[in-house]
Amino acid sequence: MQGHYSFVRRIGRAEKRKCKSSLVISIMAESGAKEETSEAFANRFSTILTHGFVALAVSLGVDTGIFDALVHLKDRESTAQEIADAAGLKERYVKEWLGCMSVARLVDINPETEKYRLPEHRAPFFTRGTDAHSLAVLSTELPMLSEVYSKLADCLKKDGPSGLPYSDYSLFHSFMASLSGRWVRNHLVQDFIPSMPKIEEKLKSGVKVLDLGCGRGVATLLFAENYPNSSVIGLEISEECVSFAREQAEKKKLTNVEFVQCDAAELPSDWSNSVDYVYVYDVIHDLAQADKVLKEIHRILKPGGVFSMIEPDCETKQSRNVGLDRLSLLYTVSLFHCLPISLYFDGSVGLGTAWGRDKAKEYISNAGLSTDAVVKLPASIHAHFICSKPN
User: Is the pLDDT of residue 288 over 70?
Assistant: First the structure.
């Protein structure tokens, strides 16, 4: 199948990662924690905490539309009142928010006029619909995670609950539709599918596609719209998501798509050896029975069928992730969301967001599937595991 990238290139990239990780560990051992002074740690710790508080304020600016107003006002200087009016908000609160943003150097302030502006080079990060805006959207996950803070603290106790139900995360599905939906809209048919020419050719000619864990159906609908000869199924356990996706399909008058509410660990028995392509974006690590789900994917795939598993890209061994700041964010998201919703169910494998490449390959192999290649996704922190069911 397409996707059999050069063995030498794959090994080369793997060796580079190993060398980099080994170097980080070596540096830590030789000059890291042992040589860090109390003053240096105090500065580093203070910076971490400060950035955490600022990120919460960024989230408020995204959710309430202050950044939208700044983008609308473009590069010109404006007073707090003008910005508040553009956002439809109270000036006094907006001025306080602008104090945080200007001190953090996210928004510029003119010391002579006390007016504010969002420089042109920063504007894309707060402009809806752009890849860069994903960072701003990510900040809005903070209040969502904060909703479960006390409940999560109880989960950590030895006599506390095992995990938390999806219902405790009231904003999750809308948040994911906004965050991952942006990547899907900007890349799925533009460069992701074209990176697998044989799959693209089959989709155009007409095959059966399953979008497993489809959420509100953003990717499912794009598959159906762009590949009208193919039959597309969106599968999701959430009734709310399935209802929402069905309404969208009806509005678009799509006849080659259906949405099924179902537990991915128990797919319909009559689906065996019937699906040509399975697409799963950022889902497997959340599942309590991820091992069973992967075996179900193997069962329903036709011999030679292809499975795209997209997961956050990191190493399984935590020591090999040290020094990569973005992964500390990943572990935090896992701690507050992915891990507790998985452990809520009895018999959960409890993978967590940062289960890593090695464990992912192990689970794929145990399910009877082969990992043909692992490649970085464009404009993303995720990796694409290109898998297949042997003939």
Answer: yes
